[in-house]
Fold this protein.
Amino acid sequence: MHAEQVKIDSITADPNNARLHQTRSIEAIAASLKRFGQRKPIVVDDSGVIVAGNGAFLAAKQLGWSEVWVVRTDLNRAERTAYAIADNRTSDLSDFDPMRLEANIKTVLDEGGEIDAALFSGNEIDLLLSANSEPPDRSRMQLNQLRNKVVRVVVACEQLAVFEAAMRLADPTNRQAALLKLCESFLATRQQDPRQES
């Protein structure tokens, strides 16, 4: 595998990419690229169409980068598509170990580092940081900006299209806000007519 640096305009996003990149996702990738640089190349086919790394491409464009690192794949069309699906899906199948993540975050903060707010919205670290351990003063404000509870929603395949359509209508740019709006709407309806079945 040979990585090469190319003009960003010489490659294009995959128009058939099934992964939806919300605003928050692109902002988080952009924050990572800005801070750490591009640490893994974008995978492209022989025509310069992105197979893996569409989010990194969009974030790099947002940052105004003129060049990115790529590797070219010689997989056939079916295998490229299968690889793109696998690349997107494999990250969905893993979770954080909350205790190790908490320890890692504290290490970063204790050593004077920062956790980008784009990576964790609102109170997402609430479940990770124990109430008994007080973070250092210099990091307390940063942690307060990052607090939120993590909610995992499981939807049956046959209901996914309805769920996704409702989420897009509620708020097309912020899935957390969209889910909150849907829940508030449901509760308001239930309060108007408590006899409705759930």
Observations:
- The helical segments are 23-36, 54-62, 77-92, 98-110, 137-146, 157-170, 175-192.
- The longest helix spans residues 175-192.
